[in-house]
Amino acid sequence: MEHVIPYTDELSYNEVLQQAVAVIENVRNKTARTIVSSSNEMHWEIGRLLCERKLDSKHGDSVVKRLSADLKAAYPKMGMSVSNLWNMKRFYLRFHESDKKLQQAVVVLPWGHINYLITKFKDNDKEILYYATKGVEKGWSRELLVNAVSMEMHKHVPETNTSNNFVATLPVAQAAYANEVFKNSYCMGFLGVTEPILELELERRLVDKIKQFLLELGQGFTYIGNQHVLAFNGKEYKVDMLFFHRGLRCLVAIDLKISEFKPEYVGKMNLYLSLLDRLEKGKDENPSIGIILCAEKDNVEVELALDGFTKPIGIADYKLIVPQKELKRLITDEIKDFKKEIAAHDR
Asked: Looking at the whole model, is its pTM more than 0.70?
């Protein structure tokens, strides 16, 4: 008879559960990629066969039609239509002389994605490689791929972000999302700061204007509180500001600094994140993320300071004075509103 060993430590059990889920998801993803790769290998080899037999629309149309009918009869669910057979030949012709990197990026894509990219970009290897790589990384559906192409995302590739370690510490999909959510710089002109202030005063003003701060952070953030206490091992630690992001499904700790970035700030944030994950993270939530907001930062120093840390941490700077362009827009809007009020009053 099998004996069940009681696991009284809830934290230890949750770690075992999360590891087991990670193993299952990893195997499922590998299996899905293997199936897609095998299917595309079949498309490739049939395309090669049609090329080697020199079958084309002029001289081989009747042969391909007959081939389609016989293959559909034998394999009714494998997509052996006439148009699909010609697509297989096009697939082979398009990529059989391409470099290995492009071939490997394309072969793991769903068949519909491949045909769309060939149609859209024809001989442009660079753009096909970009969308193939992004499609696999982010798990894009056909609709999302079409949307990304229509937005011309390949023309707006951001520079490598060295202000966080998300790629090294988070799963690929979550790291990509986190990089989209968090900025390198935040504007806090809404605080009305005109002279140097202390960190607690900065925090107080942010709390007083939390709605504006949430707008600056972006969509998906829910404010939990400031000076959030984490009690552990007889000691108390306080997180300046704590949020939850619905899309990322994780707690977000923000540490406010009125000075320029210093490497020791990373160690402190790493401790906060360890405590949040241990004490407050739900079992269905992702690892907590930390953002250190500083008056200034040097990207080289930030990159070196983050090296080796296993918790996801980002460093951003902030501007307390409204940028000139934004200020001009605000003034213009105020003038328009004032003129409307005057006009309404004159009536």
From this structure: no
